[in-house]
Amino acid sequence: MIILLLCTLIAAPAGAQSSMSAAEFDAYTTGKTLFYGNGGSTYGAEEYLPNRRVRWSFLDGECKEGEWFEDSGLICFVYEDNPDPQCWSFVRGPNGLIAQFENDPAKTELYEAGETGQEMLCLGPKVGV
User: What pTM does this model have?
Assistant: First the structure.
């Protein structure tokens, strides 16, 4: 019995978890602004608004309005400047969310960065020349 249990644990990838459902993702994110990191650097932030609306920024003062939806077990985002869905799988890690980009074979992985010392500012539209 113990050998069977050990074989099962060895066969499963370390930290393997199932992706969050749309309901789990909604419950975790709504009302929050989450900062994401990649490779030890801040990547960007997303504000999760009611009714599955979002606001994304690469922390450069420009923000993109969008919305998310569930498609085949993935959480997909569309933004005002890009109607092509960007689909991610999300799991809860020990320090927050881990997001795996599923549209690209290189599979960018982001992690919830917690306190970054930065804030998400959305400046107004660029006016003039």
Answer: 0.80
